[in-house]
Amino acid sequence: MNSKLYEKIETGTAHVKSRVAISNLAMKSNENLQELIEIAFDIHHELHVKAFWSLDLVGEKKLKLLIPYLDAFCEVLPKIKNDSSLRPATRIAMFLAKSNHRKNGIKLSQEQEHILIEALIDRLIQDEKVASKAYAMKALFIFGKKYDWIHEELKPILSQDYSNHSAGYKAAAKNILKKINKIKK
């Protein structure tokens, strides 16, 4: 691959300006978007992480562009092991949960919902970085508005080893637990 997008990804950095330039280029054409997604979803590709950094911004700005790739996203999310790609991937899952919950948002199939929910729960119980866990918590809280059992599962997961986690985890967990308790009243 020697496309302009590929070269941008290859020379890109974690800086916002770089990621924005790549995401903007990807959103300009279906071919560019497909190329970005192919690289991001190939977890063995050397540019997989960099591609996910920019795909995260595509999801934030124009989530509907990802609709044709939802099944592939659901397939790759549980397989991601690299912390640097896990954070943006989990953030995309959170965007999908929020959109799925909105009246005019993206509607996930029940199978897609269940795959995402399972992957997000796995992220919470595995030894992941706080940002990924925080996005997973938020997404699961939203899914829990449709599936009651999720909130019941979340409570012990978020409370377990609470004292052993970072301040960031504690703040996010406390916020989600407060929201769950508010709904239950």
Folded structure, characterized:
- By secondary structure, this protein is mostly helical.
- The protein folds into two domains: 1-62, no CATH class; 80-185.
- It is 72% helix and 0% strand.
- It has ten helices and no strands.
- It has helices at 4-11, 16-27, 30-41, 48-62, 70-76, 83-101, 110-125, 130-144, 148-159, 167-184.
- α6 (83-101) packs parallel to α8.
- The longest helix is centred in the middle third of the chain and has 19 residues, at 83-101.
Tell me, briefly, the overall form: globular
Rg to the nearest angstrom? Answer: 17 Å
What's the total helix number?
A: 10
Mean pLDDT across every amino acid position: 93
Helix content: over 70%
The run of helices and strands is: HHHHHHHHHH
Q: Which class best fits the helix and strand makeup? A: mainly alpha
Instruction: Give a count of the beta strands, DSSP E runs of length 2 or more.
Output: 0
Strand % is under 5%
Main sheet makeup: none
Total individual domains: 2
**Distance, first to last CA:** 56 Å
Q: Report low-confidence residues grouped into runs of 5 or more.
A: none
